[in-house]
Amino acid sequence: MSTGPEWEKPAARIKVLFKDLLQAVGAWFGDFFDLQQGVDREGTLVAIRSNKKMIGTNAWMLLCSTLIASLGLDLNSPAVIIGAMLISPLMSPILGIGLGVGTNDREALTSSLRHFAIAILVSLLTSTLYFTITPLGDYTAEIRARTAPTLLDGLVAIFGGLAGMISISRKDKGNALPGVAIATALMPPLCVTGYFIANGRWNLALNPFYLFFLNSFFIALSAYIIIRLLDFPMRTPVDPAEARRSRMMLYFFSLLVIVPSGKILYDLYEERQEELRIEAFIDAFFGVDSPTRCIDYELIERDSSKQLVLELLGASVPQDSMEFYFSALQSFDLPGISLSLIQDSDVELEKLKSLETEISSLGSLAERLVSVNQAKTSQDLKVERLQRLVDSLMRAQLPFEDIVRETKIVFPELNSLAFAKAERSDFQGTISYMPVFLVEWIPGKSRTQRRKEETMLADFLKIRTGLDSIQLIPFTESLKR
Q: Is the pTM here over 0.70, yes or no?
């Protein structure tokens, strides 16, 4: 600290104290972020180079981790999948790629790329074989969670790679590697790729493989950054022009990898915003305080249209209210979405009791409907009541369990089948009641093939149920709520 005549002046004292404070803060931050303390460059090189080869022990660990991850995905068990991540040796050749680029070691880079490719091939073959012979093979939630890679997954890989490389470069190796293995999640998306290959859905296999590639790229990039920050010696000298050219290529390739994940993230954001608007609409008109509650909903997307199907419980919604709800959808910024209601309470207990004296048996119901139709305007309400009862009795007598079993045999690619009765209005005063079948297919086939199968399924259900007309609505697993 300075002393002397100038020190007696308050302004001079404040200036000197502020300068000393800045120096102290700078020194503290310098020590806080200092990566050079405890670095072991030689040990880091040995650790990465010795573990990058997929032979011997690493090969066995790779096979075991692939099978464990495949089992975890098949059983929908996060704990089993985490166990596979912990023993997976996939991280080593990826770090070797970052090391080869960071130290300009072409031989190490070539070797790491070769063993990385071998690891990918072995993992894909093993997982594909498992999902080919497994008796389960369902499209589980754990599989579905790895089919939409986003930029956020890339950020996880970056910070995970940084943590892993910092841990490896220390003289006293930390315990960060198990956490890094779990966070970066390299093995599960590779096994999901094998699942889709085993089921012949090559187009769907691209997304999980892109997730694996995204994670691998950012882990290698993180390793390269730490190698350069720690001033690892170059294996061969690099002239400034070549170094600049290499950096430009790295920036371009990074951008090329990031752009698809950013687009997927934006699409997921838009989809989530639409979901929030739909939920706001439901809470406003069919919430907990409404006499008619929504107990479930589906947003069914077709080529050029969207349909919101609400399953309601409670008081029936009058048909003249449909136009109001359709207008409300527009006010919630949900244009182009049509609305369908499935009301399980169309015939309530009180209504059944009031009609009990009018209807002696189901066999005489048709005659009563004819006589009511002849009563003209004064009898319109009774016709509607009786028609609702006919529909209700029809549904009650439908042997749904038998139909499900038979339909699965004829159409083995069905995932699920649901049945309900829907009220529909054309906004012109016409009310119709139609049996609705909600079908979920195992994904993978083209739209043309799926439409052909849906036509065949509709014909089969008409014959099996004895109904003149039905409504068949397909939906996907990713739209379930």
A: no
